[in-house]
């Protein structure tokens, strides 16, 4: 029996008909390999975790060159230059509306730059789709469509298929991904019946099913409780032992020793090693005083506070 890891309220039935029609609008339920680009003008999974992060010295996994993106002529990301090396765990932070999600979608190839260039593994995003796992921020699905957790995870295998039904290899990869996020017992349950945290882990499993070298996560901790957040972060630390991770977060507590670099986004983009993220840098990013709570030390529960 699949355990409930949090309250299952706030079911989101937005995007009704997307699954039923066989088309998945927007990032939700769309593997990066299947997503359409929009213009700015109108390795196999393994069980077990390796928590040691090793950053490579070779060519960057992600390279942005003078990248600008505008909605209807209004710049959202402007003249961004950025290199993410192999094995990095980068957290993207910044104020609401600052361009964090837009930047991630540009990297994923779901948006086309107004100007500049995105390279993944030295190639344009559309040529590297099979190496990317992507988990969107907003979930759009029809709560009445009879799709199971396993069905959702299998969507991550689309890029590796050449038509026809899913193969045994596809199903084995999907079940390994579910096992990795501790949801093996939920494989055959309706996706709509899962709690918010279980849905998030299912979508991470879908991203893992394509056996990515680069994992892109947009606010994966949003809407889940602290205990599940901790479990997800431990999962990501383990995954970082074999893949590069870029995660958007509004929570500055992720600026910790487990994170290699911090990407500050507020229309402009600046990258810092974790140790160089100061109160002054955050004040300049958010325009006000924000206290950073570091999670790289252990505190007794009665002494661990967020202010």
List the helices and strands and how they pair.
Blueprint: E1 62-71, E2 74-84, E3 89-93, H1 100-108, E4 115-120, E5 132-135, H2 149-154, H3 168-180, H4 196-209, E6 214-218, H5 226-239, E7 244-248, E8 261-266, E9 268-273, H6 279-286
Parallel strand pairs: 3-7, 3-8, 5-6, 6-7
Antiparallel strand pairs: 1-2, 1-4, 8-9
3D structure, described in words:
Helices cover 21% and strands 19% of the residues. The C terminus is likely disordered. It contains six helices and nine strands; from the N terminus they run βββαββαααβαβββα. With 307 residues, the protein is an alpha/beta fold. The N and C termini lie far apart (38 Å). The strands form two sheets. A six-stranded mixed beta sheet has the order 5-6-7-3-8-9, sandwiched between helices. A three-stranded antiparallel beta sheet has the order 2-1-4, with helices on one face. It has one domain: Rossmann fold.
Structural class: alpha/beta
Beta strands, count: 9
Rg, nearest Å: 19 Å
Q: For this structure, what is the CATH homologous superfamily?
A: P-loop containing nucleotide triphosphate hydrolases
Question: What average pLDDT do the residues reach?
Answer: 76
| Terminal Cα span | 38 Å
CATH domain fold name: Rossmann fold
Order of helices and strands: EEEHEEHHHEHEEEH
Top-tier CATH class: Alpha Beta
Strand content: 15-25%
CATH architecture annotation name: 3-Layer(aba) Sandwich
Major beta sheet, specifics?
6 strands, mixed
Count of helical segments?
Answer: 6
What is the number of independent domains?
1
The residue fraction in helices comes out at: 10-25%
Give the CA-based shape.
globular
């Amino acid at each position: 029996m699949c355990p409930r890891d949090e309250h299952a309220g706030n079911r989101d039935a937005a995007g009704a008909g997307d699954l039923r029609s066989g088309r998945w609008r927007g990032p939700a339920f769309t593997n990066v390999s299947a997503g359409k680009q929009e213009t700015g003008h109108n390795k196999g999974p393994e069980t077990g975790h390796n928590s040691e992060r090793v950053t490579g010295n070779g060519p960057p996994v992600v390279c942005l060159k003078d990248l600008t993106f505008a909605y209807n002529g209004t710049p959202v990301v402007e003249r961004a230059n950025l290199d993410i090396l192999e094995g990095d765990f980068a957290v993207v932070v910044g104020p609401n509306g600052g361009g964090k999600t837009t930047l991630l979608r540009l990297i994923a190839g779901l948006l086309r730059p107004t100007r500049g260039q995105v390279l993944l593994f030295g190639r344009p995003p559309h040529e590297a789709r099979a190496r990317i796992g992507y988990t969107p921020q907003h979930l759009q699905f029809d709560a009445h469509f009879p799709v199971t957790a396993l069905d959702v995870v299998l969507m991550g295998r689309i890029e590796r298929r050449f038509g026809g039904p899913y193969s045994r290899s596809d199903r084995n990869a999907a079940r390994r991904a579910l096992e990795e996020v501790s949801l093996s017992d939920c494989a055959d349950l309706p996706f709509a019946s899962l709690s918010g945290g279980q849905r998030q882990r299912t979508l991470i499993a879908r991203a893992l099913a394509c056996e990515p070298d680069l994992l892109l996560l947009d606010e994966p901790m949003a809407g889940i409780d602290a205990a599940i957040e901790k479990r997800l972060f431990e999962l990501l630390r383990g995954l970082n032992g074999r893949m590069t991770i870029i995660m958007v977060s509004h929570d500055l507590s992720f600026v910790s020793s487990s994170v290699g670099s911090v990407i500050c986004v507020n229309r402009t983009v600046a990258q810092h090693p974790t140790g160089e993220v100061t109160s002054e840098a955050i004040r300049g990013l958010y325009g006000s005083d924000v206290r950073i709570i570091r999670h790289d030390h252990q505190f007794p529960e009665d002494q661990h506070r967020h202010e």
